[in-house]
Amino acid sequence: MLLGGVFVKNILVIGGSYFVGRVFVLELLEKKEYAIHLVNRGSNPFNRPEIAEHFCDRHDISALKQVVPPLDWHAVIDFCCYEPAEVEIILNNLPGTINHYIYISTCSVYESSDDLPKFEDAPKLSGPIAGPFGDYGYKKWLTEVKLVNQGKEKGIPYTILRPAFIYGQFNYAPRESFFFDLILTNKPIPIPDNTLALFQFVFVRDVAKICLACLENEKVYHQAYNLAAEELISYKKLSKVLEEISDKRLWTKKLSLAEINRNNIPLPFPLDKHELYAGSLIAGTLNFTYTPFAKGLKETFEFYRKYVFPAKEAN
Predict the structure, then answer these.
(1) CA count, 13 A, side-chain hemisphere, 251
(2) pLDDT tens, 55-84?
(3) In a 3-state reduction of DSSP, which class is residue 198?
(4) Rounded to an integer, what distance in angstroms lies between the CA atom of residue 215 and that of residue 35?
(5) What range does the domain containing 244 cover?
(6) pLDDT tens sequence across 126-180
(7) What pTM, to 2 d.p., does this model score?
(8) Residues 174, 76: Cα–Cα separation, whole Å
(9) CATH number of the domain that 259 lies in?
(10) How far, in Å, are 120, 187, 204, 207, 225 from residue 211 at the CA level?
């Protein structure tokens, strides 16, 4: 596609208005060799002239065919696909030609296991697990399977990215913001009295940069990758990092698991088991270095304190 006399590559982002997708689009805007297209419901538009926004529900095949132009898509990056039928709709009905499909999956596709860390070939879920979002990881795994099979049938290269816990600017999930709110209102930080459980994070900017690096690298075709920084975090470690980045003396309140459950305290990370993943394969493939946790969380906290928290307080 020619834009201002310069040949640019068409990128279609499905989603892209919240959190990871939004950060990716902001990173992509710095790359002048791409023409950026978004397809989503239009609930949080960019309203920027550099971005072509196409509004529809991806489940509405007729609308999808009407609003999305039939272009040669250098890549489709799918940030909001949760079940097999959703990827199937795009692969079978998207106008134009798909040259590479990048799917943002999750580390939740893996079975619970004591064999840690989990590499990309670790056993996957064979069904839903217990809990209010028990089918989330299983459906994401089924979606991966659908993408792999249909990608092979249609000759469309795919790349699957499985992030661990993502943190960063625009995160709408009450994870790091749960702690930020307590810090900024001078309330105690609840942590389990047994802080053995270890877990991992990946900074939202790292996810965005990895997506960008995948656009030009055939090495990632037909591959799935974990996205997880090397640092192992516990609630105790997390509280220390929070104290460091906030420059405040924090008051932590240790609670038993029974107290946490009885009082419905929404601690957002594992309480009694490890969730550890090997994120080294993608790092080695792309020669990528993850952002240190303290650095990424400080940037996130400063953004939250400056922009998000005042708006919440005003409401």
Answers:
(1) 6
(2) 999 999 999 999 999 999 999 999 999 999
(3) coil
(4) 13
(5) 100-314
(6) 999 987 788 999 999 999 999 999 999 999 999 999 999 999 999 999 999 999 9
(7) 0.96
(8) 28
(9) 3.40.50.720
(10) 17, 37, 11, 6, 11
